[in-house]
Amino acid sequence: MASNSNDIEPGRITVPYITAWSAEQDFSGELVCRPRGGIGYADETVMDRDSGGVLWVRAASRPGEGRPEFGDVHSLRQRRAMRRLLCQVCGQSADRTPDGILWLLPDFREDWPGWPDAMANAEPPICVRCVEVSARLCPKLRKGAAVIRVRDCPVVGVRGSLYAQGKDGPVLAGREVVAFDDPRIRWVQAFSLVRQLRGCTLIQLEAIVDGRRP
Questions:
Q1: Tens digit of pLDDT for each residue in 38-75?
Q2: Dihedral of the alpha carbons of 182, 184, 187, 193, in degrees to the nearest 10
Q3: How far apart are CA 94 and CA 117, in angstroms?
Q4: In degrees rounded to 5, what are phi and psi of residue 113?
C-alpha cells in the first residue's frame, strides 16, 4: 500500500501503489457512438486505446500529490500491476514460487467448491512482505482474507462501464467484466484489467505473517 516498498515502515501511513490520489482527476472526454459500432472519445487519440483496441478511461498520473483516495484505484497503475504481475501494495514484483504467484483476496471460499479457481479477478497480486500490512489495514479484508497461490492467470478481459446505443449517443448500461472476445467489448470504457485465476491453492495466512514462505 505504498508507492514503493521503502515506504512500508512502522508509524507511516501506508498507501497502496494502485490507490488513486486526489490530484489524479479523471479527464475522460465526451463519449460518442462510432459509425461502425461501439464507443469512442469525441477527441480521441491513439493513446486512448490499448494494443487490442479497447478504450480506457483517462486519468492524470500524479502519485503522491494531494491526498490518497483510499478505495479508488488508479486505472493506469492497476493495468501496469496486472500486466507485469506487480504487488498492488508496494509496486515491486509479486511473490512467485513453483506453486504459483501470490494473491491476497477477500475470503469467499463458500461461494463455490474450488473457489477461487476460474474466477475473473481485477485485484493485482502481492508480495510476501506486504501480506501482513494489507490483511491488517485493508477494509475489504476485515471480514476475512484468503492467501492463494495461482499457477496460471491469463489476461482475459476488462472491467469497465458498458454502454449501449441511445437516441442521442451512448447510454450507460452498467459496470461489468467483459472478455476480449465478447462483441460488447467495443462498447466498454475500461478501467481495470482482468486476469482469470487458474490452478489455485489456498494457503495459511499465518504462514506468511510468521515469515515462512510456502
A1: 999 999 999 999 999 999 999 899 998 999 999 899 99
A2: -30
A3: 19
A4: -60, 130
Strand order in the sheet with 100-106: 96-97, 100-106, 145-152, 198-203
What does the pLDDT look like over 193-213, one tens digit per residue? 999 999 999 998 887 766 645
Residue 77, classified by CB atoms within 10 Å of its CB into exposed (0-12), middle (13-18) or buried (19+), is buried
Q: Mean pLDDT over residues 130-154, rounded? A: 92
Q: Are strands 19-21 and 198-203 parallel, antiparallel or unpaired?
A: unpaired
Over 70: is that where the pLDDT of 26 sits? yes
Q: How many residues does the chain have?
A: 214
Peptide bond into 116 cis (omega under 30): yes
Cell digits of residue 208 = 506468511
Q: Where are the domains of the chain?
A: 19-210
The pTM assigned to this predicted structure is 0.89
With the C-alpha atoms ordered 50, 157, 69, 64, is the resulting torsion angle positive or negative? Answer: negative
Torsions phi, psi for 201 (to 5 deg): -130, 120
Q: Is the pLDDT of residue 14 over 50?
A: yes
Report how far residue 198's alpha carbon sits from residue 195's, in angstroms, rounded to the nearest whole number: 9
186: which DSSP letter? G
**If you write DSSP's letter for every residue of 50-107 in order, what string do you get?**
-TT--EE--B---TTSS-EEEEEEPHHHHHHHHHHTB-TTTSSBPPEETTEEEEEEE-
pLDDT at 6: 38
